[in-house]
Predict the structure.
Amino acid sequence: MKKMAIIGAGVSGLTVNRLLNNKYKITVFERETTPGGLIRCKNVENSLFHLCGGHVFNTKRADVMSFFEQIFNLNRDFIKTERNSTVFFENGEVTNPEKHSMFVHRTSWVEGVPYPIENHVYMLKQQLQDSFIADVLKMQRSYHRRKPQNFEEFLKWNFGKTLYDLYFKPYNEKIWRTNLKKIPVDWLEGKLPMPSMSQILYNNFNHVKENDIVHSTFWYEREGGSQYIADKLAENADIRYNTNINSIEKTSDGWTINGEKFDIVVFCGNIKDLPQTLKCKQIEPFANDIDHLQSHGTTSVFCEIDRNPYTWIYLPSQKYRAHRIICTGNFSSANNRVKRLSATVEFTDYVDKDEILENLKNMPLNPQYLTHEYTKYTYPIQSGNTRAMIAGLKDILAKQKFYMTGRFTDWEYYNMDNAMGAAKDMIERWKL
Ligand SMILES: Cc1cc2nc3c(=O)[nH]c(=O)nc-3n(C[C@H](O)[C@H](O)[C@H](O)COP(=O)(O)OP(=O)(O)OC[C@H]3O[C@@H](n4cnc5c(N)ncnc54)[C@H](O)[C@@H]3O)c2cc1C
């Protein structure tokens, strides 16, 4: 049997291992002490803390679902949940009083408009509804508008200026912390809802909830959160934990890693590490482009919050930096052993504890800090040539039996199922 090294025991590396471990003798190298990468969890105060975000699973790919179902018993070990997410606005500026849910937050009102907001324009104040109608008429008059060239244009083009100013701009600027004009649209395709204006109008007239995006319903583990997925995927794998791979050397007939020889390498770590790690000349022409790849990190703050019925809450408010609360305590009762409700509050990039505490004071649902975790690489940002550059590098390295797949190898905004799908596609493409 040929020997294969996989770098990284995240969803991507573990999927490759699962799909190929009958064919190769595989060793997985992982720098952390547990499997899972971004989907790792730990227990804090007997409740489950997703170290990054609050991972839920679903997929539109039949082959990925079938792979998942070969490993997991969905009906026994998972709970099927309907998303109930909302956008919080403050101080009665946005909604029609009779048509929304309200929470008291110290001295102010917080109003929840169901997500996605574009399907619930009928719940907004009259003045905002008038302004939205004016946008629609204007959009119709300029029907042959130039196609959007960047994310800001995309959002205005699809939803109109009123919704852009009210929600899409403030929310997305908090997440991306960059001028939305600088984000190209093509790589977001398929990752964002792209309803037509006629769908939006129909949904508003008929009060239709959106049910087309991947997480409008989802599966969630009864016990252990997404760590359960990682642990199960990792079962029976030969994983060397606590092993950071910082040198991969090309030899005449394969690769050497940590002094051990392998015929084939599958890299599922971070492409930014490759120019330093990979001792082969083919990487050199790519080093500059790789160095310029942009990304964001996430500070995930584990909190106890007021009870509420939501799965997650979007926060466009400029009063604090956090952009989303994921009510993980609502996902499974096993997650929630605190008195109120356990949840993760997400901030883009690094935020220190003092700043976190200051922000929490201004946030709805009275969050009480329990602990936090910063992850440096969470959201890749592509530029115009990113995909072509990475595809070129992959083709060249594949000739040397060095293959690549993963969220930070492909620099793609993959969900878990996309990461599994990309691993499968890579195996099929190179006939591994
Ligand atoms: C905030 C947030 C929320 C999300 N929510 C969801 C969700 O609800 N549902 C969903 O489906 N997806 C979600 N995702 C996406 C999901 O996390 C990813 O698609 C998936 O975890 C990517 O797995 P990966 O293996 O490609 O990368 P990673 O998880 O980054 O794994 C890479 C692994 O390689 C290891 N590694 C890297 N370099 C080396 C090295 N040199 N030596 C040894 N080990 C190394 C790392 O330690 C890590 O374990 C979310 C992502 C974020 C950031």
Notes: The CA atoms of residues 325 and 345 lie 5 Å apart.
